[in-house]
């Protein structure tokens, strides 16, 4: 068996390391995926390893013919000169959903990992502003606009290699290799994205909104935004995939909120719930003007709390005026904010929203912020539980969550404010 990389608990950008790192002589070495010393129900390194092994004979080739979901990846290291390239799969069936996270709800971590490790990422270094525009640059943009699964032929400089990195923002994927030659038959373009591409006077933010209003999937909009096919004239440039995901979620959420914050206030307390991938979600809505908070509780032995002895709780929030700084909790904050504003737009109300997330040990690895957006969306499609008081709603939430409600409140900016601040109405 080939030597496996070793897990270490540093930043989210490079959480895996080789044997020369300080953490290499750790419980991972003593465990080797068999003793579960970290407390996880499965070893995330081995989950990825065996997912790769199942497709290795098809993906470890210096030349590949196959289909793209369509999917692309724009790196961020070395910006503004980064690695760009398409995803290619050796399979002919089921490829269309491999880069469409809206269709992954209900799938297991194993299914998602296996699906994503069936994709090989081609890499080619180029400037994001197109000053070094070449055929690979053009193909990436064409794939981002494709309506169906494009056919690809890629010759790599050498056989693609696997990378077992973890990211809380982007979906996992399998091997990657440097492109030597590439040919693509992209077929027809998505006519709405193509229309935005042809309108060089349309601002990127306006194009994102127009596509969303035309029922284009958020993941497809993010792909187009990342590929630099939206925006005005020479201002167009490629955007690293990680950044484009949050940028689109943020733009759409802010636009919906600009109208929602002037809707009538919700007249009751509501709770929506969903349980998936060993994550428990409670969406609490308060009869107040707009305010919003996402609180995540990571149990020991979960992805971002692998060696902790206590539950780690993080939160970010905003009041009516919104935030001026990037949310401490990361891109998931904006994904969830978009989801709740979609509901408020449909039902024409505004409210205070507090989302409570318990991430239990079965959630052994991150799979991208789509997980937050789509599961909050899913929760909001279920009939809400209505209550007359905050105490009653929190008592109901306690039946779903393990962490005592007193601890949730002590870590919440919105709930503490609601409980301790008197409003003008309370004096009337």
**Sheet/helix structural class:** alpha+beta
Average residue pLDDT:
89
- How many structural domains can be distinguished in the coordinates? 4
The largest sheet is: 6 strands, mixed
How helical, in percent, are the residues? 25-40%
Strand order of the largest sheet: 3-7-8-6-5-4
How far apart are the termini?
74 Å
Q: How many E strands? A: 14
Contiguous helical run count: 13
Shape: globular
How would you describe this protein?
The protein has 428 residues and is of the alpha+beta class. It folds into 4 domains: 37 residues, no CATH class; 143 residues, no CATH class; 62 residues, no CATH class; 159 residues, no CATH class. Helix content is 32%, strand content 20%. Strands 3-7-8-6-5-4 form a 6-stranded mixed beta sheet. Helix 6 packs antiparallel against helix 7 and helix 8 runs parallel beside helix 9.
Describe this structure in a few short sentences:
This protein is an alpha+beta fold. Helices cover 32% and strands 20% of the residues.
């Amino acid at each position: 068996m080939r030597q496996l990389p070793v897990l270490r608990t540093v930043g989210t950008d490079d959480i895996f390391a080789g044997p020369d790192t300080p953490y290499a002589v750790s419980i991972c070495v003593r465990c080797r995926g068999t003793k579960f010393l970290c407390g996880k129900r499965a070893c995330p390194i081995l989950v990825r390893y065996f997912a790769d092994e199942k497709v290795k004979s098809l993906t470890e080739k210096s030349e590949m013919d196959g289909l793209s979901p369509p999917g692309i990846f724009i790196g961020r290291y070395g910006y503004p000169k980064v690695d760009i390239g398409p995803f290619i799969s050796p399979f002919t069936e089921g490829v269309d959903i491999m880069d469409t996270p809206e269709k992954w709800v209900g799938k297991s971590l194993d299914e998602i990992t296996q699906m994503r490790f069936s994709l090989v990422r081609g890499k080619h270094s180029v400037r994001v502003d197109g000053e070094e525009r070449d055929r690979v640059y053009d193909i990436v943009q064409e794939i981002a606009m494709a309506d169906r699964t494009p056919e690809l032929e890629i010759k790599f400089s050498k056989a693609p290699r696997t990378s077992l990195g973890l990211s809380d923002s982007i979906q996992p994927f399998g091997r990657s290799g440097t492109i030597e030659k590439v040919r693509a038959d992209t077929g027809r373009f998505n006519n709405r994205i193509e229309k935005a591409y042809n309108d060089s006077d349309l601002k990127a933010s306006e194009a994102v909104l127009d596509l969303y209003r035309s029922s284009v999937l958020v993941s497809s909009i993010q792909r187009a935004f990342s590929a630099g096919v939206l925006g005005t004239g020479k201002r167009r440039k490629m955007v690293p995939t990680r950044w484009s995901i949050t940028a689109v979620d943020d733009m759409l959420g802010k636009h919906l909120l600009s109208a929602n914050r002037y809707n009538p206030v919700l007249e009751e307390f509501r709770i929506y719930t969903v349980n998936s991938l060993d994550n428990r979600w409670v969406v609490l809505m308060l009869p107040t003007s707009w305010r919003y908070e996402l609180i995540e509780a990571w149990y020991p032995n979960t992805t971002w709390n692998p060696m902790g002895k206590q539950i780690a709780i993080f939160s970010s929030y905003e009041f009516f005026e919104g935030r001026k700084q990037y949310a401490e909790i990361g891109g998931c904050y904006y994904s969830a904010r978009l989801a709740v504003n979609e509901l408020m737009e449909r039902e024409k109300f505004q409210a205070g929203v507090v989302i409570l997330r318990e991430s239990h040990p079965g959630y052994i690895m991150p799979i991208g912020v789509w997980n937050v957006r789509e599961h909050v969306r899913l929760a909001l499609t279920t009939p809400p539980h209505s209550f007359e008081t905050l105490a009653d709603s929190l008592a109901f939430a306690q039946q779903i969550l393990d962490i005592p409600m007193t601890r949730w409140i002590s870590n919440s900016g919105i709930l503490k404010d609601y409980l301790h601040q008197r409003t003008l109405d309370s004096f009337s």
